[in-house]
Amino acid sequence: MKGNSRLRQLATFGLVALAVLALGACAAEYPNTTFQPKSEFARSIDFLWDRLLLLGTIVFVLVEAALIFVIFRYRRRPSDTSTPPQTHGNATLEILWTIIPAVILIFIAIPTVKTIFQTQAKVAAGALEIEVIGHQWWWEFKYPQYNIVTANEIYIPAGRTVNFKLNSDDVIHSFWIPQLAGKRDMIANRTNYIWFTPDSSLGPAVYNGFCTEYCGTQHAKMRFRVFTVRPEQFESWVAGQQKPAAFGAVASAAPAATGTPTPPQSGVGPEGGAARAVPRPAGSVIPGSDSFPAAAPMTGASTARLASGYTFPDHQPEFAYARPNSTIPANLKFTKGLTGNAARGQQAYSSSACIGCHVITGNPMSQGIVGPNLTHFGSRSTIGAGSFPNTPAYLALWLKNTRAMKPGSIMPTLGKNEYDPQLKTTVTTGGLDDQQIADIVAYLMSLK
Amino acid sequence: MATTAVPTTLSPHATLKPDSNSGVWGWLTTVDHKRIGILYLYTALAFFIIGGLEAVIIRAQLQGPNGTLVSPETYNQLFTMHGTTMVFLAIMPLSAAFFNFLIPLQIGARDVAFPRLNAFSYWVYLFGGIFITVPIFFLVAPNGGWFGYTPLTTKAYSPGINIDFWVIGLQILGVSSLAAAFNFITTIINLRAPGMTLMRMPMFTWMSFVVQFLVILAFPVITIALVFLLFDRFFGTMFYTTAAGADPLLWQHLFWIFGHPEVYILILPAFGLVSEVLPTFSKKPLFGYPVMVYSGILIGVLGFGVWAHHMFAVGMGAIADSVFAVSTMLIAIPTGVKIFNWIGTMAQGQLRFTTAMKFAIGLVALFTIGGISGVMHSSPPADLQQTDSYFIVAHFHYVLFGGSIMGIMAGIYYYFPKMTGRLMNERLGNWHFWLNFIAMNLTFFPMHYSGMLGMPRRVYTYDSGQGWDTFNLISSIGAYMLVAATLIFVYNFFASRKRGEIAGANPWGAGTLEWTIPSPVPEYNFAVLPTVTSRYPLWEGSEKDAESARINSQEGKTAEELGIILPYSTIKPMIVALSMVVMFCGLITTMALTFLGAAIMVVSLYSWLLSPLEPEHH
Amino acid sequence: MSAPAAHHYTTTGLDNRKIAIWAFIGSECMLFISLISTYLIYKGRSIVGPYPHEEWTSPEGRHFEPILDIPVTSASTFVLLMSSLAMVLALAAVQNKNVPKRTTGERIIGSSKLWLWMTAILGTVFLGFQAYEFTSFVHEGLTIRTNLFGSSFFTLTGFHGAHVTAGVIWLLTLLAIDYRRGLGPNDALNVDIAALYWHFVDVVWIVIFTVVYLIQ
Questions:
Q1: Entry pTM
Q2: Closest CA–CA distance from residue C199 to any residue of chain B (Å)
Q3: Is the ipTM of this complex over 0.85?
Q4: Which chain B residues touch A215 with a CB distance below 8 Å?
């Protein structure tokens, strides 16, 4: 019969699919896989998963095999006009197929309950405490033991237990680092905890973290990075973060697209005038770090780096998965060839709306607590909670029109003559021009 | 009621049916359960297609990384409406189509207990469905997810009109489901033909019976949760206002106390349909009938004790997690028993692979996968990796598509001849099934991988380089193939309705009561109320069964000739439904509309209740 | 309401409406369980007063007594209980309409109009108590928007009040029929169903009274 041969093909398809699962779990190109646990917590889940998968596969194979057998064995032969035995049931069978699944479930239930109590036990003393506060759509991280406040990135030392205290400032979010632990929701009026110990064998590495409870427009771009580092690197990072922000007074940055690899004919603006910061059509994917080369050397950067502590070295090819590659809006342009001045930037920053929402320790004007703490902004690898790489060019566009870069953002559109898609108005008075933005970029990038 | 007479003889008194049944007016005023069932079927299929198109846009957006087909705002509306549409406007009403059409036929009744209430249920569903669906065409659709978690859906975080449509729309649809459930409970308890004992009822009616209890016990809970949200949004109460000390988990508990039984509301009717199809095409009675009944009841009862397994990540504590884990695992046992009994039904039979049979077997094969992945996240620690990832999306699509939709499709192919008098085209059906089966697996199986490889749900886009690209591409290709499969189905449906082969009373050689009467079914269903002596009157029935079957299979007599009194057609239930929806519309426009709607509703309701259901008996 | 159901065959011999009302009451139970559970979950969670059983002084120094007035509500509870009694008598009167009445006492006991009126009036009095309670709470500074207690209290008791209101309208409708053509034993089922609903609403109030007012 036609259907039978197709069923045979399907059976093969199923087996192939299972084989792919086994292979897929090991392959290196899955940076967020839950199949390669990197902490004891994730491993205990993986142990349960393995058992569930094994038992599930056995049940699956047996049931589908029985089904396929019955389909082949008992299909009606065209010649057969007899009536099959009119059985109504079989008590022995019924008892058997009630008890067997029950027994299988016992083999799941016992390790399940054990793991529940293990992983939800009180954390051992001496753990690194990190407070996580969810905001629409970014992460606030506090290290109460070290008096550090940061955003969207955490450093944790390999081998030391970390205890996360989870809260939300607004709607429900959920905290997930697939390779390190399961999820835990972050809920206002309710404090949750999750703790785990990243394997001490881990070298410096970065893991993607995600918000996994739908939390509104930009739920998709509420991401964070976790850097597992060696204990001494962690100490150095802590020391750097504890200092007030330092920046080279004459640091400059050139956020313009002066060195883009795309030929100039794609620029639609007049010669020497405004050109597209990103000369790409809408919908194109930024292929990697080449799109926004650090155009001009950051003169203040080297001194700043001396003052700051350890920072995870960015741009390593093996950690490319941690580098965001979101598309940027096609009609968002930035003037070519501007050079930012950090000192001017500090002034511009301190006299603009920025200070209403952001804290920069070391800048007494900047005391707002609504948005992320920017004290060591220059040491971070992404902006917009993992929306874009933290480079001058992206940052310039971000400051110019956050709500075009990340629709729905609470941070308003700041660029002069830019259209704010939420307020449905164009920013006029008080808007920042491109030079001011370039200066602020230079200032922020220098906060190492 | 001692004077009750069973009209088993043909009465010489002919009563003229007061209203014409033809034309649009006939459909607007009908109180015939079969016509209402068909209205449900068409409407639900239309919503199924709308929900499917929403899903296709979602898959097109996620086909590759950094998709820009739709904006994040639009995407969030699309996934919210896809879920809401499929649950409340497609699968539930598709089941309701069968409740309406089949239950009276299967138990040997001439109509449901409250024919006008039945019409009312349908019209409320239609108007409520329109109310909640129209905003998507103007991109102001609900955007809080089908689960509507607070505080995201409160005014503070969703100030727009979007969520208002959702809160009010679900409230309206709840009225429809509840009214229908009271009706069917009464029908099944009270209108079974003589001899149709509970343990002789066809399995579809049994599963529907369980579902109605789930509806009447689960829907009040969501009603209250929605009332709180509505009051919060419109009248400034504080049920979900965290600043006032509210617990955001209140909503989740109320929602899932409803939401988990809702899952069984969606799947049990499909189980019932499959339990009708498999015996017929195996030429064998259902294996383990009593166990099938008890397991269905057990699933329903346990369904109320497992809601918090949707909340393993909220931090309920180790004890609550353990309790809900074990209760969830327990529910796998009666579900497994059903699967085994279906295979037992087929074993030793003579299987005929009609399209209906293929879809039924498809349910057994695919629901098994959904069931197994369900057990996988009954273990809370394991669930902490799976929940809110694409793994869950894979799981519940195996349950709802592989389960409910496959079962409903089996039901449509199986009962199409009873509804229309014609058979659906088997060749096209074969194409539909195989394309559907392959595309379904292509769409949803890769989601197991993308989920376990770290892809969160409800994201409008994702970065490249995360290891998800291939799986998403395969899923999207599968979704496009599902469109093709559905197009074949739609064509087959309409073409067969016009030109399909004439079916006759019992084209499949089935054994249950509904196949003893002509196809399409005369408006009075049974010329004489049958006397039932077995589960399969046409297979193993006694002389009595055969006698009533013989009378009932005769075609061409009108109710009037047979002296059967049928209810009047009436427009009143529709007016009441419409004015109720108008009343709710007032909440988002002007209070004047609310009062107007309420006034019309009260007047038309009184007019309905005080007018007689049917002509006086002679 | 006026369907001539007696002519149709039913499996149980009971009228369809009788079964439907029990299903409806089962459903209503879940409705009130949800409301009462919410009240209990939010008990003691309000950040600001007034509170049901505790005193409270606002940050501005305004003093609030415990807001629930148990004696008054006890009276209204008694009224509602009495209305159930009247309902029982009304049903009996309709069922025994055709039994000849000899004494004045029998005529009083057998008057369906009297007992229906009595039930409706007692129900209305209960609603009056509730209206008085709501207004005085608002005057004392507790509204549905004040705190979690206010939201859950007004919604719970308001839902119950709405049920009583619907019941009173139902009773008045029966009365209208009684005046128009007289309610007889054939209508007993209609009255019986109304009575079931009325008793249910009454029982729910006993639970609410205990949970909200009596348990501190």
A1: 0.91
A2: 20
A3: yes
A4: 152
